[in-house]
């Protein structure tokens, strides 16, 4: 029963898709650098849903799309700096992380963080009302209550399906730290949800 | 009884290798460690249970916070990219210009030590759209101040048709009132208002010449003077401004519109929109009741030129001697400006759609005149679906501003109206069009 990992079971062909998508991204970025806006639009279309959900799960419910838009614009701005030796998705989520950090910093600086968090909590509650499954609701709450640094790691590994090495590059931290953070997060979740 | 790979007090209550269960369950275990752990899994029930619990947890996490579809962001991103391209283009042009200056300096003076400073000076940082706009206004303001005449008139001798000096000065005053926070503009605006006030004769007529363009001097000059006085309540020009407004009301045609002096019975939209705005401004400044009657009569005439599709004609409905886009934009904006309730009218919505369609369908750059009224009316309507059109048009306008040389900050006199208005007209209209309070 344990012969296949979850990743292999559920996302068995993800590596192949990643490779195909990676080569498409690289080709489109090269065309975008040469001024082809349609190529850049293709990149946006390919990654927009995952990116919006990335921000949404981190807690940017009201403006996940704005943050995704900002990420794509930064990618466009930095298109000449992008090297094809790096996987595009690593580049994309590194920029997305910076957008998220800037967003949090801005909120804190403006001292509207509390209102922002209250709004987020309200919207989360609204979403919860829609979710009538108590178990899923408990899992959702447990994930949302993780501290930001653990939640980001969980998001990148569980939802975006990156490996440790890629996450280390995206977050700019040592590989061992990524592993320990991820294990800590998952153990916290397991402990909290053990009664279900 | 614990097995050889188990110890007391472990979190998983058992196996020293249970920490690998999470990595294995998620496919994160390095390939080299995988076969060994898989052999272990076949023997260790504790790790097997760990793997199952992590699988269930991860599946639950994905179900609890699933990916949801989002709206297509391509159009939004494309608009942002257009703005970025403008910024990059401006940056490149600046670098070319500065490099040329640097080369000349080096060649002439041989001052190699200047090079690092020049490089620093021209380095283009990452700019926001707000920064680009702000700089566009600053440079437009600086250019406008630089071309004002010593007597306060705001025109350039030898450029455009000399008979429209009052109208041009009026346009520049209107721009100065909008960009008022830019250094020097308020003082320049005051001198221009004084120059204009001195051009209002005893009967309220602005400008001394009798020629076909006079209604523009009256309408635009009058509007500018009235608005200046409203924004500067202590201004000494109030009487002159109201005199100009009375003159406007007095020469209204029977039908309600305004036209050229040599064609008094042929009112047209192009002249009328400025007279209506001036009258509306006069009422805000304390104009008499009969001016209000003239305003509503004029508005009724203006509305009579709109056809069922929402397009305004030049002299009557369906009269389009030079197309309908600019006529519709200017008439619509005027109507929205003088009658706030027009925003709720279904005809207004029709005309807004025509303005947007006209901009989207045109493969040529719109005139500054048309662009100004189109942007103002769409912005005033405030509908979200116009954002794309607005962003695109504003980006194109920003890209046309001169960024180097003697005319830096101005817009080139490149449209049909620039023949009579020159760069002062182009710059005042474009700067107001891209200005957002």
Structure, described:
- The complex is a heterodimer of chains A (196) and B (437).
- Residues 111-117 of chain A have low confidence and may be disordered.
- Chain A is built from ten helices and no strands.
- In chain A, α2 (14-33) crosses α3 (37-58), α8 (148-159) crosses α10 (175-192) and α9 (164-171) packs across α10 (175-192).
- In chain A, 77% of the residues lie in helices and 0% in strands.
- Chain A folds into two domains: 12-130, RNA polymerase sigma factor, region 2, helix turn helix motif (Rna Polymerase Sigma Factor, Chain: A), CATH 1.10.1740.10; 132-196, Arc Repressor Mutant, subunit A (Orthogonal Bundle), CATH 1.10.10.10.
- Chain B has 437 residues and is mostly helical.
- Chain B has three domains: 1-68, no CATH class; 74-127, no CATH class; 140-434, Glycosyltransferase, CATH 1.50.10.20.
- Chain B contains 17 helices and no strands.
- In chain B, α1 crosses α3 (45-64) and α11 (269-284) packs antiparallel against α12.
- Mean pLDDT of chain B is 83; it is low at 1-12 and 108-126.
- The interface between A and B is large, with 49 and 43 residues.
Secondary-structure element pattern of chain B, one letter each: HHHHHHHHHHHHHHHHH
What is the architecture of the largest domain in chain B at the second tier of CATH?
Answer: Alpha/alpha barrel
Which descriptor suits the 3D outline of chain B?
elongated
Number of strands of chain A: 0
| CA-based gyration radius of chain A | 18 Å
Which oligomerization state do the chains in this entry correspond to?
Answer: heterodimer
Helix content of chain B: 55-70%
| Alpha carbon gyration radius of chain B | 33 Å
Continuous helix count of chain A? 10
Main β sheet profile of chain A:
none
Taking the alpha carbons of the first and last residues of chain A, their distance comes to: 23 Å
What's the domain count of chain A? Answer: 2
CATH topology of the largest domain in chain A: Rna Polymerase Sigma Factor, Chain: A
Query: Into which percentage range does the β-strand content of chain A fall?
Result: under 5%
Structural class of chain B: mainly alpha
Estimated helix fraction of chain A: over 70%
For this structure, the CATH topology of the largest domain in chain B is Glycosyltransferase
CATH superfamily of the largest domain in chain A: RNA polymerase sigma factor, region 2, helix turn helix motif
Annotation, overall tally of beta strands of chain B? 0
The CATH class of the largest domain in chain A is identified as Mainly Alpha
How many structural domains does the protein architecture of chain B include? 3
